[in-house]
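Hi V.,

You were right to ask for the full record rather than a summary. Here it is.
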Amino acid sequence: MKRIPNQWLEHGAERPFWSYTSTLLRAMRWRVGLALGLMISISLIEGVGLLLLVPLLQLVGLDTQQGSLGAIGRWVSSVFRSLGVRPTLSTVLVAYVLLVSAHGLLRRWQAHLSSALPQEFVAVLRVRLYRAMAHTNWLFFVRSRTSEFTHILTSEMERVVAATYHLLRLWASGIVAAVYVGFSLRLSPAMTGLALASAGGLGLLLRGKVRVSQVAGEGVSHAMRHLHIAISEHLGGMKVAKSYGAEDRHVKTFERLTRQAQDMYSSAIQNQAGVSYWFEVGSVAILSVILFLSIEVLAMPTTQVLLLVFLFARLLPRCSEMVQSYHRFVHCVPAFTSVMGVQKRCESAEEVPPHTVEELELRQAVQLQGVSFGYDGTAVVRDVDLTIRAGQTVALVGPSGAGKSTIADLIMGLLVPDKGRVLVDGIPLGPNTMKSWRDQVGYVNQDTFLFHDTIRANLRFARPEATEEEIARALELAAADEFVSKLPRGIDTVVGDRGMRLSGGERQRLALARALLRRPSLLILDEATSFLDAESEKRILETIEKLRGRMAVLIISHRLSAIQGADTIYVLQDGRVVESSGWGDLLA
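Predicted structure:
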């Protein structure tokens, strides 16, 4: 089993408990207040119902006039008289029925609120976390596992729902238990004090079980995270697995991780079952001692003993429910810790927010001046000077790993140079201009991504307000109109997960149409024609030629046919520009 985190060893269960509670109260103030109000109201009604038992016992012939029980009976009778009602058997029973009805209505309301509140709380957490993920800088995002993000947003959030539910049950049981304790204190302070002291000792004996629940909860989070990552990677790489005959290896890995998760859940269930067993045995032992002392030592009246037994019989299940709810909450709360940890990491990697939004449109040139950039201390781009003039076509060529795609990311502002700067019409690219600049860029890369939706929806993702005529024109420019028209449902055909119902060349043409639909001032094609047949590539290159003068185009390609029409060709090697010229000079 996993080692208990040091901070939990130091602070026990209080730290996650109060951290979770404070977050819940901040996010759901009035709903938590309403839930607590309902819990208190329900508890008060139960307390009034207990008070009605005293005159009811008296009316059926039992002696309730002695000691504290008599004082309670006289007070209840005075309440009835003040209302102008005589405390007869019928009036007491009618009052009891009314109280039970009101109690049932409030419990119904509270049950609905207790079911809805956890879902609403998790919805708030999920949106906050997703917003933090969406606003992280690109470097942090590409270094993170998207499958881990998916796990946190789904599986761990469901455990947060369970934690909230158990916390509300803990509060509800605690408030009702407090009413029972208050009433039993009025009947017999000595016996109630003995019961509370014994319950406290039992709680101390079971304290170690809380730490086991914490560790088991951590283990479940860890196991489920690795299982989710394996599922995502295995399903995504199923074609490669089949081609290598590695299906059985995938199954064995999946089986091992599944059993780890199962073992963690089993450990948690066994621990909770053990807590329930020992609490039940301990509670019965405590109740037996109290009964013995009440009858044999204190010689309490029979009616008072019966009522005390009734109270403790109602109190013990509440205490048991409190203990179980607390253990289950502690087991689930590591999921909340994971959620908050990922959110904190994402927020610390947030792109620098703009102070003001400045409009930026390419009219003259995009320039890289002495730009250098590296990953983890390894330089990828070194002292690059590069210019893309408005309306011109520029090509980047060079071997794999030369830094071509990194330069494209720097131009789009996805990466921030370690040295040097990126200028658009002489204005440095920064937080205030980033949003406006990205709206001016159309990007198509080799690994085309399409949503599991219709072609129309995929195109309108780039520009929701685009008209049908503009969509048709973009498809035509991207040489995609012909194959789209031949599909069973035309532009309303669903392309499948990541566009898998289409060929690689068809996906790239749709991605190009999507980029052109943005009407960008800079179009970046990062190996965008690598999957196209010669005829489709020819049509796209003709389109790029027609766009000359209307938008700047940056072409990154290994294919000589794609760069022949470029005004300037930059040759990269080891992250440096080693040559720049036109096609003719480059051949020479």
